[in-house]
């Protein structure tokens, strides 16, 4: 798993070594494209956020795999694809 820290690639199936690395990546992506995140559920095993701005249709889901450490992006709804 090699990631560009400055320009992270966040898409369905993307793997990250741990939840901390994934959180940093999604924050960096938000900074790059200029949107704010609204947390829905975040803990040590899952990360679900949506756009903080009004009727914005995107949402992202990621969670740890069976190894208890590696994080995989499971769902990327709609508009975030265009922001990437």
Unreliable runs, pLDDT <50, ≥5 residues? 80-84
Using the alpha-carbon principal axes, give the shape: globular
Mean pLDDT: 83
Number of domains in the coordinates?
1
Q: What is the CA–CA distance across the termini? A: 19 Å
Strand content: 25-35%
In DSSP terms (H or I, runs of 4 or more residues), the helix count works out at: 2
Q: Main beta sheet, described?
A: 5 strands, antiparallel
Q: What is the share of helical residues?
A: 10-25%
- The radius of gyration over CA amounts to 12 Å
Query: Number of DSSP strands?
Result: 5
The H/E string reads EHEEEEH
Please state the structural category: alpha+beta
For the largest beta sheet, what order do the strands appear in spatially? 1-5-4-3-2
Keywords:
84 residues; 23% helix; 2 helices; alpha+beta; disordered C terminus
Task: Describe the protein in words.
It is a single chain. The protein is an alpha+beta fold. The chain has a five-stranded antiparallel beta sheet with strand order 1-5-4-3-2. The protein has helices at residues 19-33, 80-83; strands at residues 15-16, 37-42, 46-51, 59-64, 71-77. It has one domain (15-83). A hairpin with a 6-residue loop joins strand 4 and strand 5.
Concise synopsis of the structure shown:
The protein is α+β, with helices and mostly antiparallel strands.
